[in-house]
Design brief:
mainly alpha; 10 helices
Length: 239
């Protein structure tokens, strides 16, 4: 029988696959964000005026949130979402790091309050308290959703970042709660990324349908398939 062993020194690496998807499991929280109408809510509730960088706040918010969900902890990490075909599984246009950086620097106290209305932080905080997992949730946000440091020298930009961290954490938790049925336990971000989000994928199109190819024999394939099916059962706000 021919061995499947690969001589590592004979493996060439090339960053040339336009159909490759980094963190392909982001399809799960992206599906939930779409069902929640987060982009539309941000466009309706956040008014930054007519200054450069103020338009279409929803796609900029989701670019930052999805970067945080994937494990990013600084503004520049949003560039991972622009690699290969990754943006295609997110449901929105992914903005450049320089664009979302400008977006954050526009925030004032009033704008942070507008941003806070986009999320469901109050309801989820109450849920955390009912389940006595406040400390675990805070630790998870610090080590799993970008709360480790502040990305800007401007106070209100950092305040907006804090709200986005909360939103990313809540999106992760609701992905587990609704997709996996983990109502009575806190599945930490590290576990979700390792099992469901940090998947390599490849996007192809055939017969007018897109297909996201994921690794064969993935240990948590059933959980991923179940979560996606359950999240897609949530009614689409756009009808």
């Amino acid at each position: 029988m021919r061995s499947s062993h690969v001589v590592l020194d004979q493996v060439d690496a090339a960053f040339d696959d336009e159909r490759a998807v980094a963190n392909a499991g982001l399809l799960l929280p992206a599906t939930l964000a779409e069902r929640l109408g987060l982009e539309q809510a941000a466009d309706e509730l956040i008014d930054l005026g007519n200054r450069p960088g103020a338009a279409r706040p929803g796609r900029k918010l989701l670019t930052l949130v999805h970067s945080l969900v994937a494990g990013g902890d600084c503004i520049d990490d949003v560039e991972v979402l622009r690699a290969g075909a990754t943006a295609s599984v997110l449901g929105h246009r992914v903005m450049a790091a320089s664009t979302v950086g400008t977006f954050l620097r526009l925030f004032t106290f009033g704008h942070v309050r507008q941003l806070d209305r986009v999320g469901t932080a109050v309801e989820l905080d109450a849920d955390h308290r009912r389940h006595a997992v406040v400390e675990l949730a805070i630790r998870d946000a610090k080590h799993g959703s970008g709360l480790g440091h502040h990305p800007s020298g401007r106070f209100f930009a950092n305040a907006a970042w804090l709200v986005l961290v909360t939103l990313a954490h809540n999106l992760l938790r609701w992905t587990a709660t609704l997709g996996l049925g983990t109502r009575d336990e806190l599945v930490v971000a590290k576990t979700l990324r390792r099992t469901l989000l940090a998947l390599p994928g490849r996007l192809t199109r055939s017969a007018r349908r897109w297909r996201l190819h994921l690794p064969a024999r993935w240990p948590w394939a059933h959980s991923f398939t179940m979560a996606l099916a359950r999240l897609r059962c949530i009614p689409d706000p756009g009808g």
